[in-house]
């Protein structure tokens, strides 16, 4: 893919503003000025080549991907079991989706209250509720993964507070080691 294209043709310039009639009459009496406005392929010049994301076959300069972890030694981390992964996805969807839906419903409710002249809601209330609900939705990704029991045989509690504290300390212990 071509990248960083630059236009190398000068466009007509006037120091004073012109009306449409003046521009129309100029273009009718000077048809050569129309050719200066064309965007033909000759008027574009490449300044760089696109690098892309993957290496092409036969490219010696492409970086080689290694299977070894850099900076951690030779040990490989165990993959997440499918049972734990499914449990984690359910928790993430719930902890992101519930605050997000509550935030959208509250915004619509405030809009209906204001449109029907039932209640004059101050402008700061939708801002605060949006900040709190959407912010907690963003934090739900981290909480959903930390509150999941990482043991395939153990289901864990409904809210996952015990698992969150256990996984938080375990995560920091692994990072320090």
UniProtKB/TrEMBL annotation:
Keywords: Membrane, Transmembrane, Transmembrane helix
Region (Disordered): 52-77
Top-level taxon: Eukaryota
Pfam families linked to this entry: DUF3464
Residues passing through the membrane, by range: 92-110, 122-143
Keyword Membrane: yes
Entry-linked PANTHER family: EXPRESSED PROTEIN (PTHR34575:SF6), PROTEIN PAM68, CHLOROPLASTIC (PTHR34575)
UniProt-recorded name of the protein: Protein PAM68, chloroplastic
Upper taxonomic lineage: Eukaryota, Viridiplantae, Streptophyta, Embryophyta, Tracheophyta
């Amino acid at each position: 893919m071509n990248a960083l294209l630059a236009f190398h043709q000068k466009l007509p310039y006037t120091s004073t503003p012109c009306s449409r009639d003046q521009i129309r009459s100029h273009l009718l009496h000077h048809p050569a000025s129309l050719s200066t406005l064309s965007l033909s392929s000759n008027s574009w010049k490449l300044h760089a080549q696109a690098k892309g994301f993957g290496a092409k076959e036969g490219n010696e300069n492409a970086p080689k991907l290694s299977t070894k972890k850099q900076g951690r030694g030779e040990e490989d981390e165990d993959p997440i079991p499918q049972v734990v992964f499914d449990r984690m996805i359910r928790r993430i969807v719930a902890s992101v989706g519930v605050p997000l839906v509550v935030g959208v419903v509250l915004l619509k409710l405030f809009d209906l209250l204001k449109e029907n002249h039932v209640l004059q809601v101050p402008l700061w209330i939708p801002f605060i509720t949006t900040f709190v609900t959407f912010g907690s939705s963003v934090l739900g990704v981290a909480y959903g993964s930390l509150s999941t029991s990482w043991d395939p045989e153990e289901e864990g509690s409904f809210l996952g507070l015990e698992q969150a504290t256990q996984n938080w300390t375990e995560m920091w212990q692994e990072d320090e080691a």
